[in-house]
């Protein structure tokens, strides 16, 4: 027992060391890339007006943080991303369960879901503006349309691959389809649902940015368009960085 405990302690110590090394390497790669970027702009290898530089980006961020504008735009995009994310998760799981519960319904709707998932959402966004107006609701619907169809297809495929022996066991014990759903399907699909959520949060942010490109008066997408129009590339880089942070915060 003591040998096993010692082995467990050694394993945990190795895992902690590995995670610490990974964090250090990640930080070193980031610092190296930023230093190389700044060095290239200082030596004139790349045009700092076009590609900006870490120093210019940091100064721009401090200015925007000083007047609070950056936090307002981050808040708008974060709210839209979270709302669309939760809608995608709810609709995706509910629709996938409905398709799993009805073989005929899944066979009828599957080609339409594949077609809708393949539609270019950037082309759909202008139509949504015409149909729903220039408002936040349109941006959220655009974000949902980017992620929801792929989410339904992925979850439905995963649900159909549930261990059939477990389903037969529930059936043999007199269980209903509801028992199969609550005691086998959902519990065994938790890793799939979480993995799907990780993908969806990024897709929802992409959809929000697309919507803000076309119909917004605030948000990171609005600032990116503004930056491109006034040739302030550091603005655009800041918004892209903030977008990546929003992805992490939204999933956490």
Summarize the structure.
By secondary structure, the chain is mainly α. Helix content is 88%, strand content 0%. The chain is built from 12 helices and no strands.
General description of the model:
- It is a single chain.
- With 252 residues, the chain is mainly alpha-helical.
- The protein is 88% helix and 0% strand.
- It contains twelve helices and no strands.
- It has helices spanning 2-42, 48-51, 54-67, 69-101, 103-118, 121-132, 136-160, 164-172, 177-188, 190-214, 220-230, 233-251.
- α4 (69-101) packs across α11, α6 (121-132) crosses α7 and α11 (220-230) packs antiparallel against α12.
- The longest helix has 41 residues, at 2-42.
Task: Provide the descriptors you would attach to this structure in a database record.
single chain; flat; disordered C terminus; 12 helices
Helix residue percentage: over 70%
CA(first)-CA(last) distance: 38 Å
Structural class: mainly alpha
Principal-axis shape:
flat
Number of helices: 12
Number of strands: 0
Strand content: under 5%
Q: State the order of secondary-structure elements, H for helix, E for strand.
A: HHHHHHHHHHHH
The pLDDT mean sits at: 79
Radius of gyration: 24 Å
Low-confidence stretches: 245-252
